[in-house]
Write a structure and sequence with these properties.
Helices cover about 25% and strands about 35% of the residues. By secondary structure, the chain is of the alpha+beta class. The chain has one domain. The strands form two sheets. The protein has a six-stranded antiparallel beta sheet. Strands 1-9-8 form a three-stranded antiparallel beta sheet. It is elongated. Keywords: Membrane, Transmembrane, Transmembrane helix.
Length: about 190
C-alpha cells in the first residue's frame, strides 16, 4: 500500500512540475509583434489591376441596365443620363398625376476610387422645393444599394465604389470621371487569392 501512495505522490508531483515548467516557458517566450500593413497585403495588392477606359454613351447603357436588373424601384421611376453632368430623371406620382423631375449632379472622382455627386440643379414640374427635402424624400422612398449614401443636408450622393457588390469579389475603382471631356476611366480589381 505504501508503494502505491508513494507512486501516486511522485506522479502528482511530476504533473505539477510539468505544468509549472510549461507556464514558465510560455511566460518567457516573447509575444509576437503585430506588423502594421507593411507585412499585410491589402486587397489592392492581392488583385490584378485591369484598366478600363469608357465613354458616356456606353456607361449610360451599363448604368440603366444595372438599375433595371437590380429592380431599384420605388414610388419614383427614374433613369440616369450622363451628359456634361450626371442627370437623374424621374417621374413622381402625386394624387394620381405624374410629375416630372430632373436633378443634375457634378461628379468628382476621389483618390480612394469612390465617387461623389454634388447636387447642381433641380427641377420638379413647377414646384419649387428645397434640394435637401427632395434628396431626403429619395433617400426615404428608394431601395438604394448599400454602397450609395445620400447626404441630404450636404446635397451630395456618395457612391462607395469599393463596396459595390460585384460577382467573384471583383472591385471597381473610379480613376477619372470628367464628363465634359468624355474622359471616364476605372480600375477593375480581380482578386488573385
Amino acid at each position: 500500500m505504501k508503494n502505491k501512495y508513494k507512486l501516486l505522490f511522485f506522479l502528482l508531483l511530476g504533473i505539477n512540475g510539468a505544468i509549472i515548467i510549461s507556464i514558465l516557458i510560455l511566460i518567457t517566450i516573447p509575444a509576437k509583434e503585430e506588423r502594421i500593413d507593411s507585412e499585410k497585403k491589402s486587397m489592392h495588392e492581392e488583385a490584378v489591376h485591369l484598366p478600363i477606359q469608357t465613354n458616356k454613351a456606353d456607361l449610360n447603357e451599363v448604368i440603366n441596365h444595372y438599375l433595371d436588373k437590380e429592380g431599384l424601384t420605388g414610388p419614383i421611376h427614374y433613369e440616369v443620363k450622363l451628359d456634361d453632368d450626371v442627370e437623374l430623371y424621374g417621374t413622381l406620382r402625386v394624387f394620381s398625376k405624374n410629375i416630372e423631375m430632373k436633378l443634375t449632379f457634378e461628379p468628382e472622382a476621389l483618390e480612394n476610387g469612390d465617387l461623389i455627386l454634388r447636387q447642381k440643379s433641380i427641377a420638379i414640374g413647377e414646384l419649387n422645393l428645397p434640394v435637401s427635402y427632395v434628396l431626403k424624400f429619395i433617400q426615404d422612398r428608394y431601395h438604394l444599394p448599400k454602397w450609395v449614401k445620400i447626404q441630404p443636408n450636404d446635397k451630395i450622393i456618395y457612391v462607395s465604389m469599393q463596396n459595390m457588390e460585384l460577382k467573384s469579389d471583383i472591385k471597381l475603382l473610379v480613376n477619372t470621371f470628367d464628363l465634359q471631356k468624355d474622359d471616364i476611366s476605372f480600375t477593375l480589381l480581380v482578386p488573385t487569392k
